[in-house]
Amino acid sequence: MMRRMKQRVLIATTCLCAAFAGVISAQRPGDAPATGPGGKPPDTVFIEELTWAEVRDLVAAGTTSVIVGTAGTEQKGPHMVDGEHKFVMDFAADKIARALGKTLVAPVVTYVPEGGWDPPTGHMRYPGTITLPEDRFTELLVLAGRSLKSFGITKVYFLGESGGNRNGMRAAATQLNELWKGDATAYWVDDYYTKAHREQNTYAAKVLKVAEDQVGNHANILDTSELLFVAPTHVRKDRLTGNDYEGNGVSGNNQSKSTPEIGKALLQIKIDNALAQITRMNDGTEGPVPAPAQQGGGGRGGQPAANRPAAAAGPARPTMETAPASKTPTKAPDTVFIDELTWEENRDAMKAGKTVFIVPIGGTEKNGYHMVLGKHNYTVTHAANAMARKLGNALVAPTLQYVPEGNPDRQNAGGISLPSPAYDAVLDAIARSLKAHGATDILFIGDSGGNQPGMIAVADKLNAEWKGGTTKVYALTGYYNEGREHYRAWMDAAFGYNDDIIGSHAGISDTSQILHVRPAGIRQNMLMPWGGPKDAGVSGDPTKATAEIGRMGIQFKINAALAQYRTLKNPPPPRGGRGGQQQ
To answer: pLDDT-based confidence at 212, cuts 50/70/90?
Structure first.
């Protein structure tokens, strides 16, 4: 009773304040300054964690280099999570950017070439892996590079965590340099992977006192030690049993000897090699796109033929059925994200009924002076986690941060655009990968208006192609459209905020959601009525935002998405005539 009374008082008080605020102004004042300073940025090199104005000011002050790290979502044996490459690249890119100085880091690319999906080949033979064909991967990198150049970046460094990424990065750098003709330069920093891999093998063999050919090429002591150093919770220490059954995805037999200390040394080898090559490229003693070095062995991103499970004969069966059976049961942690699970854990979760997959779609865009560029990525990741837990039979793919944001050659500072049809092609590849593993329902949820058309187009195309099959794609536009309508109606009813006050971009709605899911993403000292300067890119008044309003907003979006999903999955029978009977 007391709690309800307090809520009524809060609503009444807030409505009264809103009423007075509405009298003052319902839009940015006409005498607002054209622009303003971005303020002091936090200690980060990641574009997602900066506002557009902070990036703008950094670029103007000489920060004109960006690292584009490519990782992957692939099987890493029974003992490591599928997102191992992402976690390592996050760490290494940060260190390299800081060592170079005046360098930023773009969102790590988690969708890369991992094999074929029909029939599954390469790492795609294991549940949880997602592949992006090389031509689509290259196009994503080219469009990212064009976006970066458009706001003043003059050097783009491509670094890859996997052997399968090398050709696409080299092709993207070559295409960009042909397009830019010296106005900017794209670099393929292959020594981070290829040269470093050879030196790491030598180092590990010396430390372990084994022959170099015993170190292995995939999910081995190198990968394992690195992950133990940067993210130890993502290593299943009870599964460090070596290459203990055929087809388990591991090459090498020394995983149990992995240590964080070895991982630290191995990562320094990669970082040092990258920095040395970048130095040579920058001083002109080496070209920006060197000839491909001999990879040697199976390559860390590859899988030796002897350890690949044989392809199944006849019609392709889902990989959750064809992947090898492990010797011991898995004990997965409390997570729904496929990149935080091992391939065995993904397989067992699917076999236990988790065959619904949520694909969260965000974006990297301008969000006022007060809010970071990664707003959509943080919000939709949070929402996808909550949705999956509500459903109980769902897992979540890595968030797609590269989405349509307009012309890639005309981006605001920090913005990165992947327009259709390239964007559609990535969604298509994600869905096909999940289908190969046995997904029954694939749910696209997009946190931005620009995400929606591609979601619909891909869902319609694949559902027509897969008609009569066991997999269906759902473009849950209700997450954005109906969720937004319900959210606005609630704010009007609860606080008296009309559409002008709420706004349509980076206003109360967006700001409140980030206050709820990632409060460090809001610069409290830069919160200004109506966004402040005219170039803020803000619609509405973000100063009225609260974390509680954000919590409610995300819940409205989730509820709308789930309601749409239930309706699409089990549509109501057609309504009949006046007698209630279909004629």
So the answer is: confident
